[in-house]
Amino acid sequence: MDSQIRKIHQQLMNKEISCVALVQSKLNSLEQNTHNTVNSLLSDKALELAAKVDAKIENGETIGLLEGIPFGIKDVYMVQGTYTTASSNLLKNYKSPYTATAIQKLLDAGAIPVVKENCDSFGHGSSSENTIFGAVKNAKNPELVGGGSSGGSAVNVAKDFTVFSIGGDTGGSIRQPAGYNGVYGLKPTYGRISRYGLMAYASSTDCVGPIAKSIEDIRILLNIMSGIDTKDQTTYQSEKIEADSIKTSDSIKTVGYFKNFVESEAIDPRVKSDFLTVIDKIKAKGISVKPLDFFESNTLVSTYYTLAMAETASNLSRLDGTNYGNRIEAENLKETYAVTRSENFSEETKRRIVGGNQVLSQGFSDEIYLKGLNLRDQISENFEKDFDQVDIILSPVTPSYPPKIGDSLKDPLAMYLSDAYTVGFSLGQLPTLTVPQGTPTGVQITASKNNDELVLKFANFLKDTI
Amino acid sequence: MSKIMTVDVLSSIKGAQPSETVSKLFDVIKNANTANNNSFNNNHNNAVSLNHLREDIVVNSSLTEKQIIVENFPKEKNGYLVVSKVIEE
């Protein structure tokens, strides 16, 4: 899969297609689609911007690489004047007053947003069923879930309804739906892209990232969105990744994988055998492969959810219907808060808020929350030691195939455990890319912090190897 | 006011109860082995240095931003934005 962005850019420049026709065709596909990927279409603004791009081309002016490229945005990003619902009842009529930094950078480069995309409400879920807009249906098999929480975004890219989409990844929410739908999805190093204007779920692992059909498109988008932002003081300055620099992978000598992921009872036999075949092909190329020890899936999932619930309970406490949101009036202010939140939050969101308040309360916090933080330190330390021995860690994206629509809602514990292979890298704040190859739900490539370039290098190597 | 607050009060969610599923996750943490030293804290050291703190200045919102904020407010009466009755305890 070569760069979709470069291909469309050439077609626009050569006047093989007009930007208005391109945007209109994407809007039509989105409107007619039956996968429940759309929360709202941005038709008027998108067509207005497309007409400006056509006028520039007509005048013989050159256009930037991203100018006129239609893209999708997970409905948790602020885009001024658009509905930003987080797929929730509470915010179903909420309009963004401002625009997220990452999205503004894409707008400044001329990309055209066409759709706000369906997802799990506030990012709470791994299937994109926890939404008021209907469960997102998988791009390959509509009886299965689209994955989550950025399910609408991954399906839109897979079905060519958008050229690329911007998802959000807290514990796997870009990588898992990318794997379920057969596209690329990157969770960059934490802090590489500003979170300003992304509705906060768990602030210490929330990441902005691209979903696309090629490694080159991921590289282009990562470069544009990266950089320091004074509005998110966890951001850091990163180097631009050059196209040529990711074409060779000579610097990668050793690849590691976690033994317990592959030996787990929960892993599907096909995922396991396919993953081991990938390992053999890598060895055959002369790269040394090292099995590594890691924490048990139960520990990873429990640590992640404990900390994420604590953070989301805190972040979502602002949603009380006072200044915005679907306020339900009751006899006094406190009752209004309680009724508004009880009626408007989904069961999954309520479960996470209550769990978070439990771990943060007196008596629980030492035994659970602080212990969770300590475990997170150990997990990070483990990664640091691993990356002294290996350049890349390779892992399956999920233990098994996407579940049928309806199954995850019935069994939340099974849903939490399905995140076993993604949450560890989130806790480590590491750069991780899902590539749609190797196993039925893809493989994940991870490097040490700030080493996003190495991840893309290895992805190019894998593309030619497996 | 009682010093013990139940999770439904803490969460402002009526009738909220601790979830069995979530309790299972907490049990894993309770039973896990943790390191005694807390010296390894580099990985969530995302704090900004004092030299890089942003300027302590008020940035005015644009007119469009202000208009949308007002538009999002749930209730208005005679040009005033209305909040619920505040109780004192």
| Unreliable runs of chain B | none
Count of extended strands of chain B: 2
Strand order of the largest sheet of chain B: 1-2
Q: What's the multimeric state?
A: heterodimer
Kindly describe this structure.
The complex is a heterodimer of chains A (466) and B (89). With 466 residues, chain A is an alpha/beta fold. Chain A is built from 17 helices and eleven strands. Chain A has helices spanning 4-13, 19-32, 43-58, 101-108, 151-158, 175-181, 215-225, 259-263, 269-284, 297-315, 333-344, 347-360, 365-389, 407-410, 412-417, 423-427, 452-465, and strands at residues 38-41, 70-74, 112-117, 164-169, 184-187, 207-212, 254-258, 288-292, 392-396, 432-435, 443-446. The longest helix of chain A is centred in the C-terminal third of the chain and has 25 residues, at 365-389. Chain A is globular and about 65 Å long. Chain B has 89 residues and is mostly helical. Chain B has helices at residues 7-11, 20-31, 63-72, and strands spanning 76-77, 80-81. In chain B, strand 1 and strand 2 (80-81) form a beta hairpin. The longest helix of chain B has 12 residues, at 20-31. Chain B is flat, with a radius of gyration of 23 Å. Classes of the chains: A alpha/beta (466), B mainly alpha (89). The interface between A and B is large, with 74 and 52 residues.
Summarize the structure.
The complex is a heterodimer of chains A (466) and B (89). Chain A is built from 17 helices and eleven strands. With 466 residues, chain A is of the alpha/beta class.
